[in-house]
Amino acid sequence: MLQMIGIDYEKADLNIRSLFAFQPSASLEGMQVLKNKYGLDGIVIISTCNRTEVYVSAKEEVKDLFALVCSLKKIDSEKYEKYVVERQNQDAIHHLFQLACGMKSKVFGEDQIITQVKTALLQAREVETTDAYLEKVFQGAITAAKKIKSQVHLTAVKASVIEEMKKVLQEHKKSLEGCKCLVIGNGEIGRLAATAMIAEKAIVTVTVRNYKTRQVEIPKGCKVVDYKDRLQQVKESEIIISATTSPHHTIKYEECANLFRDGKQRILIDLAVPRDISSLFAEEKDVLLYNIDTLGGNSVAKQDDTAMVKALDIIKEFEDKLTKQQQIQEFLSDIQTIGEISGEVAYKRIKKPLNRALEEQQQDEIEKLMRQGTQKTISSLLFDIKKMLPDKYWEECLKAMRVTVEEQKF
């Protein structure tokens, strides 16, 4: 069966979500620990700025899955159980398919989530915590999302956290041209933020750890400063954007509060989960502090009903395909057994004439070929019948054939 537990922006604010966020290394370790300790068939963890979701495949229902995840984080599950959502089987599959195409995102229809879902699957593969079932479910969700992205326009305008950031900055500044901007973090979000600011003709400096000893990708037009030397740039900048995966603050109150009391207005944009920038800065007179939640407060675009219907039709198409694959997988054991027994019965009927006509070595070869050929033929016929019969008749047919060949065996 498939189980999912999740905490997202709909029920939990940034402070709560930060407690459950998994950095990549913690996600890899967490999946291994849970799979091995509790005998799971498979597990995948999706962790983004707006949600943490854990998908588990197991033969039987895993009791208190949320508590098991909380144990990794050393968190009291009872204290936070009101924030969690639990889903199973088809409900979990439908949620994942909608999630992958951006229909569950804070910014409706955004397409970065496709990459995040794919990354989660790749991480599970890396530590061998996925299984055949989770592979099919996640691959189906990713493929459906790609088809929707290519065929359906889910939002009236292209929206993302970077677009929301630009809107906020433009509300406070007539022009971003010439503004000194520091971007802390050179990951995907950091590079997107830096590129967006360059496009607005801001003067952008990005931080990189151990810059002189590393090969790094720097957005075109940006200056570079080593992370350890960032405080001088903090003092000189009007706009400071932080988007790292660090578990610690990159802009600490005790280090920077006095720097911000020079009468110059500064805008701090925190794009990280957990927070990169101390929330205490919100109390400073000349500081405007925004985070993932406050940036996207009104970012859900009004969806086009026609586009929604088309997207849901595509999702149903892939969900139905997944269901059929799963049904075939469930009956595969019966089909193989029927084929094997049919091969055995067929050989028994011609065994005596063969024994008289052939030598022992030839008999063994003929037996092997006949068993294999009969099994493949019967299996192929059963799969063809499956395509033609309604499900309930197919199940009855399979049961009847299983009983019949078992009787023939004896």
Which key phrases capture this entry?
single chain; 410 residues; alpha/beta; Beta Polymerase, domain 2; Rossmann fold; 3 domains; 6-stranded parallel beta sheet; 4-stranded antiparallel beta sheet; 15 helices; 10 strands; 13% strand
Task: Please give the structural blueprint.
Elements: E1 2-8, H1 14-20, H2 24-38, E2 42-47, E3 51-57, H3 65-73, H4 77-80, E4 85-88, H5 89-100, H6 112-126, H7 132-151, H8 161-172, E5 180-184, H9 188-199, E6 203-208, E7 223-226, H10 230-236, E8 239-242, H11 253-256, E9 266-270, E10 287-291, H12 292-295, H13 305-357, H14 360-388, H15 391-409
Parallel strand pairs: 5-6, 5-8, 6-7, 8-9, 9-10
Antiparallel strand pairs: 1-3, 1-4, 2-3
Helix pairs in contact: 5-7, 6-7, 7-13, 8-9, 13-14, 13-15
Q: If classified by CATH, what would the architecture of the largest domain be?
A: 2-Layer Sandwich
Count the E strands: 10
So how many helices?
15
Helix content: 40-55%
Question: How far is the first residue's CA from the last residue's CA?
Answer: 36 Å
Rg? 29 Å
Mean pLDDT level: 86
| Percentage of β-strand residues | 5-15%
Tell me about the largest β-sheet.
Answer: 6 strands, parallel
Strand adjacency order, main sheet? 7-6-5-8-9-10
Following the backbone from N to C, one meets helices and strands in this order, namely EHHEEHHEHHHHEHEEHEHEEHHHH
Q: State the domain count.
A: 3
CATH topology of the largest domain: Beta Polymerase, domain 2
CATH class of the largest domain, named Alpha Beta
Poorly predicted segments = 297-303
CATH H-level superfamily title of the largest domain: Glutamyl-tRNA reductase, N-terminal domain
Structural class determined from secondary elements: alpha/beta
Shape: elongated
